[in-house]
Design brief:
Strand order of the largest sheet: 13-12-14-15-25-24-23-20-21
CATH architecture of the largest domain: 3-Layer(aba) Sandwich
Structural class: alpha/beta
Strand content: 15-25%
Bound molecules: glutamine
Largest sheet: 9 strands, mixed
Number of strands: 25
CATH superfamily of the largest domain: P-loop containing nucleotide triphosphate hydrolases
CATH topology of the largest domain: Rossmann fold
Number of domains: 2
Distance between the termini: 59 Å
């Protein structure tokens, strides 16, 4: 079978859930036995989101090969079995970078380099490069139709229909059908305008996904179909759902996957959605619940902890329990101490982060967890600060800190490694305080050896694991012996024993910090072992206290 291409665009406004819709379409294609991959285009000029503030942009998702990507790739990996890498996320910046590099090299033979055809060809090349060995390439174009920035991407996908043939390309457009209370009516005008805008640049959508709070009645679908020039059964309700994992199920019941394979002339096996239906059933009927305090800085922007919150949901699912998150601003702790709410939490989690703000508050939260036997999970920065907190309790190390926050500390228990091996490139990298901010991090998958008898080993039930990293600072080996003599356990180490990847406090119900980001690898059908065990410990703690 020839590779087929699905393009997903968005209209009316942002945040309609285009990433989730794309991921769900991937899940539906897989449920029909097809192999897929996904690609996200981001129309901004940054080469990748690595240097962007998560406050503005949300989480930076890291793939195995160490690419710093848009958070939608997290959805793609959580909903499908696609193996994603640097090739699956591309920005305007990357496209121009590549075209300009070619121009300097003289690849364009003295021609004038232009948006059409040079930029559009580069975009098309990025899509076509993914077509090997998969049945369907699903491409999501970031931004909203009408933005100046996304025009070259839309022009490129428009051209592809001619290049590849009508039956190999399907355009899906996500819009909004709001219910206006005062009129008591669903309004189709925003959708009409958005489709009009898309048609002006030459793209006639095949399928419309209409985001709305209720199922669209047939007469509304008929109206949209008429005004937007699509078939009536190609107007799909993308109804608000209780849990995001319900989206594939709702799309399927609306006939979306059937319509896609019809457009693309594909004959597939009957879709099997039992896994999704099962999981949604379990998520909606938990047998118990736990409350986890997440202590961080960007607390008002949940997007910056997207993978983390999903991994907690998965961990809950593994224990048939609902996980209630209590976001705690670490600066609040600095001002007013451990509040009532937080002291009632069944588990405490300090996630990854950068920057000085709220650091002492996080350390205070870790102290509380350690002293009161509350299950604790520290991720990346959370692990580093757990080391600092532990060190500060030793008579000789009271002024211990991470060199990131106090470059002059007499005891940099967490420090900047000047030299490290890049496993992806098999090279030795060097960095110092003056290095570029992009590209000096330990990024992507690294192997780790687990010590038997540890919390980590009980969770993974394996001795060698690989996990994804995104950080500059590391555990300082100068303090390893002292800290382990005083009761800290280093239960995960790099194969050469040089890098401390997991620390634990054995004399505690469950206290674990890891230098990597386990949340990136958690799946609904395969909850991450550390999240599973953390939730289990929190549940036990709660039951013990009851
Ligand atoms: N700021 C820390 C470092 O760079 C931790 C990073 C993180 O939590 N991802 O090492």
């Amino acid at each position: 079978m020839r590779t087929k291409f699905i393009f997903i665009t968005g209209g009316v406004l942002s945040s309609l859930g285009k990433g989730l819709a794309s991921a769900s379409i991937g899940a539906l294609m897989e449920a029909r036995g097809l192999t897929i991959t996904l690609l996200k285009f981001d129309p901004y000029i940054n080469v990748d989101p690595g240097t962007m503030n998560p406050f503005q942009h949300g989480e930076v998702f890291v793939t195995d090969d160490g690419a710093e990507t848009d958070l939608d790739l997290g959805h793609y990996e959580r909903y499908t079995h696609a193996k994603l890498s640097q090739k699956n996320n591309c920005t305007t910046g990357r496209i121009y970078h590549s075209v300009i590099t070619k121009e300097r090299r003289g690849d364009y033979l003295g021609g004038t380099v232009q948006v059409i055809p040079h930029i559009t060809d580069e975009i098309k090349g990025t899509i076509l490069e993914l077509a090997d060995n998969v049945d369907v390439v699903i491409t999501e174009v970031g931004g909203t139709v009408g933005d100046i920035e996304s025009l070259p991407f839309l022009e490129a996908i428009r051209q592809l229909k001619g290049d590849l043939g009508r039956e190999n390309v399907c355009y899906i457009h996500l819009t909004l059908v709001p219910h206006i209370k005062a009129a008591g009516e669903l309004k189709t005008k925003p959708t009409q305008h958005s489709v009009k805008e898309l048609r002006e640049i030459g793209i006639q959508p095949d399928i419309l996904l209409c985001r709305t709070d209720r199922f669209l009645p047939p007469e509304i679908k008929a109206k949209i179909a008429l005004f937007c020039n699509v078939e009536q059964d190609a107007v799909v309700t993308a109804k608000d759902v209780e849990t995001i994992y319900e989206v594939p199920v709702v799309f399927h019941h609306e006939g979306l996957d059937e319509k896609i394979v019809e457009f693309l002339h594909m004959w597939t096996k009957a879709p099997d959605l039992s896994m999704w239906e099962n999981i949604v059933g379990k998520l909606k009927n938990p047998t118990d619940e736990v409350t986890i305090a997440v202590v961080g800085k960007y607390v008002n922007l949940r997007d910056s902890y997207k993978s983390l919150t999903e991994a907690l949901v998965h961990g809950g699912l593994a224990n048939e329990c609902q996980v209630n998150l209590q976001y705690v601003d670490s600066e609040e702790i600095e001002h007013s101490g451990i509040g009532d709410g937080m002291s009632r939490a069944d588990g405490i989690l300090v996630p990854g982060g950068f920057g000085q703000r709220g650091i002492e508050g996080k350390i205070e939260a870790i102290r509380h967890a350690r002293e009161h036997g509350v299950p604790f999970f520290g991720i990346c920065l959370g692990m580093q600060l757990a080391v600092v907190e532990y060190a500060r309790n030793l008579p000789d190390l009271q002024r211990a800190h991470s060199a990131e926050f106090d470059p002059d500390t007499p005891h940099p228990v967490i420090y900047l490694m000047k030299e490290w091996i890049n496993y992806q490139k098999d090279t030795t990298e060097r960095r110092d305080e003056g290095s570029d901010k992009g590209g000096t991090m330990r990024l992507g998958a690294y192997p780790c050896h687990i010590k038997k008898g540890s919390f980590a080993h009980k969770a993974y039930r394996r001795e060698v694991i690989t996990e994804r990293h995104r950080h500059r600072y590391e555990f300082n080996n100068r303090y390893r012996e002292l800290l382990t003599d005083k009761g800290m356990r280093t239960s995960g180490l790099s194969p050469d024993n040089e890098l401390v990847e997991i620390i634990e406090i054995p004399d505690h119900p469950w206290f674990l910090g890891c230098q990597f980001h386990p949340e990136f690898k958690s799946r609904l059908w395969d909850p991450h072992p550390l999240f599973r065990e953390f939730i289990k410990a929190s549940l036990n703690d709660k039951r013990r206290r009851r």
